[in-house]
Specification:
Blueprint (H helix, E strand, L loop, with lengths): L16 H18 L9 E7 L9 H15 L4 E9 L3 E11 L13 E13 L2 E9 L1 H7 L12
Parallel strand pairs: 1-5
Antiparallel strand pairs: 2-3, 3-4, 4-5
């Protein structure tokens, strides 16, 4: 069997797992940005493990659907923009900015109409083009401050 060469048209070259995983990551963002949350099963494996889940978030596509459903209810114009992305054969890591306008209740905070912008980072591990593990962090404190929440951190009793 002959190996494909780089002088072959792109449509005839084999797709690397790295390319497949990058495309799955981009599709994940597209699903969030368009609100087509029923499509998470296209890019997230059943039972996918989120090492940094939201409180009560279940595993797999349903967990992401519920989380981003809650986020889009609070921020109907929610948008995830990728600022920087790096990948190897099994992982895709990226820095992102989430933007949106607070138009629905969020964590007990009534709608403020404020526009928010929050930075974060995520690492995803993939198998067969599906997200199987996720690690991530967003500036949750910054988000709450932008919404005008009391984040003084006063602790009572000890």
């Amino acid at each position: 069997m002959t190996q494909p060469t780089n002088d072959q048209p792109a449509s005839h070259r084999p797709v690397s797992s790295q390319q497949t995983n990058i495309e799955a990551t981009k599709r994940f963002g597209e699903i969030v940005n368009t609100g087509q949350l029923d499509h998470f099963s296209e890019v997230v494996a059943p039972g996918s493990l989120d090492h940094d889940p939201a409180p009560g978030q279940e595993a797999g596509p349903q967990g992401f659907k519920a989380f981003f459903g809650m986020m889009r209810a609070a921020f109907p114009d929610l948008h995830i923009g990728v600022d920087q992305m790096v990948a190897d054969d099994d992982h895709v890591s990226f820095a992102y900015t989430i933007t949106g306008t607070h138009q629905g209740e969020f964590m007990g905070i009534a709608p403020t109409g404020r526009h928010v912008s929050v930075r974060g980072m995520q690492i995803g591990r993939f198998e067969n083009g599906l997200l199987v593990e996720r690690w991530g962090s967003s500036d949750e404190l910054g988000l709450l401050k932008q919404l005008g929440a009391d984040v003084t951190g006063n602790v009572t009793g000890n």
